[in-house]
């Protein structure tokens, strides 16, 4: 694939700010999960606004930023806060942040998110490994892309090898990790109970407003990806679920401990 000048410009900005070129793992932190960064040793933090091609703006009052440093002995690049389709109307809003990872040797990419659960055994506060996804939004971040590379195969999009490593890390760390198929809803409004019943019928176990376009972009650029959902609520109408943003953020924050443990075991063994 031809090098993309946008990716090179973003990578140069990172190198100028002290990212020395080696990244063992990149991690995107979803809503309420920002405290993971506290576990890093000597992080360099770079606001998205200082990196060409990165989305700007705030999430829940915090500026988005990248943090680069050591986490459990590995060099890690953490995206604190992603940009969502619903903010801009652009499903490719994360194109440069993810594509520029190719300039750093294409490290494995762990995408985390807050999600609603459609499965009785996946309860709020728990973690679930994403095994596959459903995208019926009629949106795709590669619309308008050119060349044969846009016809990205999506079998095993959620890398089986990384999934195996995360499953083993969960077992060794004592963090419970369920599994499920994630369905992307554009948001920002939550689903109706009828939409949740439809999603269940179609085979979804988790619903959320992110991740899917990022996985498609990451696969376009040849990155290996895993997705982890922090279950913040039952889907609308299930077990009395009435999801809202405050609950999503608060439950995700409370569930960070399990994710911390899982990442510690995963990175230590990477
Ligand atoms: N729906 C969509 N997105 C979400 C949910 C949900 O129930 N919970 C957390 N993010």
Q: Give the DSSP E fraction (strand runs of 2 or more residues).
A: 25-35%
Shape: globular
- In sequence order, what are the helices and strands, one letter per element? HEEEEEEHHEEHEHEHEHH
Summed up, the domain count is 1
**Low-pLDDT segments:** none
* Radius of gyration from the alpha-carbon trace, in angstroms: 17 Å
Briefly note the CATH topology name.
Rossmann fold
Sheet of most strands: 5 strands, mixed, barrel
Mean pLDDT: 94
Instruction: Indicate the structural class.
Output: alpha/beta
Protein name: Purine nucleoside phosphorylase
Pfam families: PNP_UDP_1
GO biological process, one term: nucleoside metabolic process
Function: The purine nucleoside phosphorylases catalyze the phosphorolytic breakdown of the N-glycosidic bond in the beta-(deoxy)ribonucleoside molecules, with the formation of the corresponding free purine bases and pentose-1-phosphate.
Q: Can you offer a commentary on this structure?
A:
Helix 4 (160-173) crosses helix 8. The chain has eight helices and eleven strands. The mean pLDDT is 94. The chain has one domain: 3-Layer(aba) Sandwich (Rossmann fold), CATH 3.40.50.1580. With 270 residues, it is an alpha/beta fold. The strands form two sheets. It has a five-stranded mixed beta barrel, surrounded by four helices. A two-stranded antiparallel ribbon has the order 3-4. Strand 8, helix 4 (160-173) and strand 9 form a beta-alpha-beta unit. The chain has helices at residues 5-16, 85-88, 95-99, 160-173, 193-202, 212-220, 245-254, 256-268, and strands spanning 25-29, 41-47, 58-59, 62-63, 65-71, 74-80, 109-117, 127-134, 177-184, 206-208, 225-234.
């Amino acid at each position: 694939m031809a090098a993309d000048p946008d990716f090179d410009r973003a990578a140069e900005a990172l190198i100028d700010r002290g990212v020395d070129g080696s990244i063992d793992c990149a991690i995107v932190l979803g809503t309420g999960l920002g405290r993971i960064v506290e576990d890093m040793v000597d992080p360099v933090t770079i606001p998205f606004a200082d990196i060409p091609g990165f989305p700007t703006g705030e999430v829940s009052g915090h500026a988005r930023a990248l943090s680069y440093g050591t986490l459990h002995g590995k060099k890690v690049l953490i995206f604190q806060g992603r940009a969502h389709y619903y903010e801009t109307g652009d499903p490719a809003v994360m194109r440069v942040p993810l594509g520029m990872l190719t300039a750093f040797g294409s490290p494995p990419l762990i995408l985390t998110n807050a999600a609603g659960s459609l499965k009785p055994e996946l309860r709020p506060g728990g973690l679930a490994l994403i095994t596959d996804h459903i995208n019926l939004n009629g949106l795709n971040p590669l619309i308008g892309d050119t060349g044969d590379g846009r016809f990205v195969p999506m079998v095993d999009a959620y890398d089986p090898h990384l999934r195996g490593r995360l499953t083993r890390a969960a077992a060794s760390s004592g963090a419970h990790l369920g599994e499920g198929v994630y369905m992307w809803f554009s948001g920002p409004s939550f689903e109706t109970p009828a939409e949740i019943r439809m999603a269940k019928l179609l085979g979804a176990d988790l619903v959320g407003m992110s991740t899917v376009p990022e996985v498609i972009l990451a696969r376009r650029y040849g990155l290996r990806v895993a997705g982890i959902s922090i279950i913040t609520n039952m889907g609308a109408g299930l077990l009395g679920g009435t999801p809202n943003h405050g609950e999503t953020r608060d439950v995700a924050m409370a569930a960070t401990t399990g994710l911390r443990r899982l990442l510690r075991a995963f990175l230590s063994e990477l």
